[in-house]
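[step 3/7] fold_predict: job queued, chain A
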Amino acid sequence: MRTSPAYLIAIVALLGAGCAHHNPDFDASKPHHRPEGFANNYPNNPAYQRPKLGFFEGWAARIRNWTQDESVRAPSAPIPTVAPDLAFIHANCDTPALTWIGHATFLLQTGTGVNLLFDPVFDDRASPLSFAGPKRYQPPGVALADLPRIDVILISHSHYDHLSRDSLRRLYQQAGGPPLLVAPLGVDRWLEKNVTGGDRSRIVKLDWWDKTIYQGLELHLLPVHHWSARSPWDRNQTLWGGFAVTRPGFAFFFSGDLGYSKDIQDIAARFDGFDLAAVGIGAYQPLWYRNSHVSPDEAVRIHRELRIKRSVGMHWGTYPMGQERLDQAAIDLAIARKAQGVSDDAFFVMKIGETYRSPPPR
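[step 4/7] structure written:
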């Protein structure tokens, strides 16, 4: 029997507590801090204004989206996949390489022998519910058990398609010792409670523009236009962000989830371009989603404004997060690339499981 949206709302509501929240990281000198949480640097684009919905009406609309007939968003052609090059991945110590595992989950090998994993989600659903929510269209490109030892996990924000308790618990118990967990403010406390068993020694929390250094790599948390929540009651109580990973001769940008905003110009002013990037291109329909996610056209604009040499499109082809077809983002990316005069090899999509080997460092 199909589960009713009203029943799902009741279950989701039980996941949170309705009490007021105090932000223990609140710093009144920082404009994006609030006593109860965090805010974006810039206002929403009024052209993408979301229809005004009440609390329960809004959640009903979201869950209707979750439970929509999958055929509506099925890809018009099979999503390309390839068997992962596990021999290269496990042996690689000196070549910058990016492997797409699916959605926003990437393995970045930095060319220094350090393995970074971004937003690891290996779950069948990106949802708090086992029976509803965005369902994975196909298996991860690299099975969690087939990964090399991960040195650092970088988490962009708290949404279920980017932050998975079960995936992180398994990775934290990997052979050779747990990875370092790098996360925005507030997500660190969630990790302490849900992943590390109270141990904070392997957790680094960052505010926007903060950085930590790991074996010669600078890991920066960057401001992007988005929001956070894991229940109906905790909206924006934890921070969100993108990442820059830099070392002499190589710089990588990971967008996380973002709507287009002046934050892009702010990032461009602080970094002298990027050699490689993973930039979101999916979940841009309906129109009001674009205050949270960029369209392919906006993604290409970000590519140009951040002076990125090679960009890979992410956040598509895995979980049906928007209302477009699962492969529509890749189709629209080709159109946007041509319209903005960007070459095919400068901003492209990968096969799930594929490894892209970056050109030699500058």
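[step 5/7] annotate
The domain at 82-357 is CATH 3.60.15.10 (Metallo-beta-lactamase; Chain A).
Residues 209 and 270 are 10 Å apart (CA to CA).
exit 0
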